[in-house]
Amino acid sequence: MSTYHEEEKLRDMRLLREIQKDLPAFLRQFFQGIAQTASAKTRLGYAYDLRIFFRYLYEEHSTLGGIAATDLHITDLDQVTADDIDCFLEYLSYYVAPNPEHPDAPSVYHNDEKGKSRKLAAVRSMFNFFYKRGKISANPASVVDTPKIHDKQIVRLDVNEMADFLDAVDNGDNLTHLQKTRHLQTRKRDLALMSLLLGTGMRVSECVGIDRKDLDFRNSGVKILRKGGNESMLYFSDEVQECLQDYLEVRNQIETKVKGDDALFLSIQNRRITVRAVQNLVKKYAHGITPKNISPHKLRSTYGTNLYQATGDIYLVADVLGHADVNTTKRHYAEIEDNRRRKAATMIKLRKD
């Protein structure tokens, strides 16, 4: 694991400890107990979501209402019913909570089915853990239905838009005068970065974590650390390799601000580029190319679509995209699958012309 990923893990663990100060003391057992099966980032996500759950209990619960989360005991969970958890999911549709960046100005929050499902997963995990350990007498979360998530149409670049997008990155089309000035400095970096995203389908978080030593030009591949913590090798085309090698001529002449950091992609400040910076770059270059709301994830969808249309192999797409469950991939590309079936209807003629 690279230094970057180690630092990310430590950052998540520090944040987790900070959030636990607002949670019941017994949750320390939970976070320690799942440490062997859940990544630091997953545990941090659970902590954020459970903080909302206990805030709901404080504000709305019939018997636990008004009791601060830090004053709750493990036996208090026995007072939470399946109906309470259903009400929590409804609460998530609209609620007001403190804004960490503006403590004096609370913010309004909304959750769709996906957000509710994620928070329910955290609550379920907590109840499952304590029920299996015999700490509570019932597991009300086990009978609560997961909100149905409605599949959305995949937003992606078509063939012409993809070519126009890369041309914009290469030539600086549709940029303001100030942006064009900066583009002269970052053109090779941006073209290598966008080509790599479009040519491998990797996640933006995986991309920013790449070090120079992770590149293997002999095999046209790059080593990345997947979302779940596993290392994986992704392979790229000659076109992507050419862009990477062109950029490396520039990158190899730059000393990073952080000593020992071997980051492949650097910011203007010569630090490892951030996820937010890449998101802003994609948005900048997509402006004027397409009315679609293009993000790094949409570039990933573009790659997945192109690969599936070229191979028809959903298992290959799932493997390259790093989906742990092929059903996730099938849901994303069900529309393409349906189009393939429609084409099948025209392939067979019952009577000769």
Strand neighbour order, sheet with most strands = 3-4-5
Computed structural class = mainly alpha
Outline the low-pLDDT stretches.
none
Tell me the strand percentage band.
5-15%
Fraction in helix? 40-55%
Number of strands: 5
Shape: globular
Our count of helices gives 14
> C-alpha Rg, in Å?
24 Å
- Overall pLDDT: 90
Order of helices and strands: HHHHEEHHHHEEEHHHHHH
Biggest β-sheet, characterized? 3 strands, antiparallel
Q: How many angstroms does the end-to-end distance come to?
A: 63 Å
Helix/strand layout:
Elements: H1 3-20, H2 27-33, H3 40-60, H4 82-91, E1 95-99, E2 102-109, H5 113-132, H6 159-171, H7 177-200, H8 204-208, E3 215-216, E4 221-225, E5 231-235, H9 238-251, H10 275-286, H11 296-311, H12 314-321, H13 326-332, H14 334-345
Antiparallel strand pairs: 1-2, 3-4, 4-5
Helix pairs in contact: 1-3, 3-5, 6-7, 7-9, 7-11, 11-12, 12-13
Question: How does this structure look, described?
Answer:
Strand 3 and strand 4 form a beta hairpin. Helices cover 53% and strands 7% of the residues. The chain is globular. It has 14 helices and five strands. Helix 7 crosses helix 9, helix 11 packs antiparallel against helix 12 and helix 12 crosses helix 13. The protein has a three-stranded antiparallel sheet with strand order 3-4-5, with no helix packed on it. With 353 residues, it is mainly alpha-helical.
